[in-house]
Amino acid sequence: MNKRHLGILLTASASLLALAVVLADDGGERHGPADRALLPLATQQQHLYQRECGGCHLAYPPALLPAASWTALMGRLADHFGDNADLDPDTARQIAALLVEHAADGAPGRYAARIRRSTLGQPAVLRITATDYFLGKHHEIPAKMVRGNPEVSSFSRCEACHRRAALGSFDEDEVRIPGYGRFDD
């Protein structure tokens, strides 16, 4: 191998390494597309989940809760936060399998690890907004900006402020609170 080819190879290797570092690092607080555990999956189960659950609310990334929480939620669809969200048994089974398989317990990435740590040793948390991690990330946001905001109304409406939530991006640099704009804590 001559020096020119070696130089090209070393440059290409360094570029690939830099790209891998960028994709693997979520910047400490950023949870955008680099955190693969939050990306929607291109599977039949994901499409089913998106259609059945995403028709009423954001089809939350499974890595936002541990498996025990998803199991508990899927077991109480007849009273899903005051609504009847019952599904036929096969559909419910497929969606539950997707959620449990990709739950925070075994999902890769820092975000899933933080959710795991924040729910460790607790009974099944039924609301993402009730996890210690979520509460720690959102505690400085005044209630008037969310609950008192008719364009948001609830912290469970991630997509109202995290404009790319459906793509699994919860990067705080992308947050825009309707009626208030960017929120810097």
Q: Flag low-confidence runs.
A: 4-34
Percentage of residues assigned to helices: 40-55%
3D shape: globular
Q: What does the average pLDDT come to? A: 82
Class from secondary-structure proportions: mainly alpha
Compute the gyration radius: what is it?
19 Å
Q: Mind describing the biggest β-sheet?
A: none
Q: For the record, give the distance between the C-alpha atoms at the N and C termini, rounded to a whole number.
A: 54 Å
H/I helix tally: 8
> What is the β-strand count?
0
Number of domains: 2
Beta-strand content estimate: under 5%
The arrangement of helices and strands along the chain is HHHHHHHH
What is the oligomer described by this structure?
single chain
Structure summarized in a few sentences:
With 185 residues, this protein is an all-alpha fold. It has helices at 3-24, 44-52, 67-74, 89-101, 110-119, 132-138, 143-146, 158-161. The radius of gyration is 19 Å and the shape is globular.
How would you describe this structure to a colleague?
This protein has helices at 3-24, 44-52, 67-74, 89-101, 110-119, 132-138, 143-146, 158-161. It has 185 residues and is mainly alpha-helical. The chain has 2 domains: 1-30; 31-174, no CATH class. It is globular and about 45 Å long. The protein starts with a helix and ends in a 24-residue tail after the last helix.
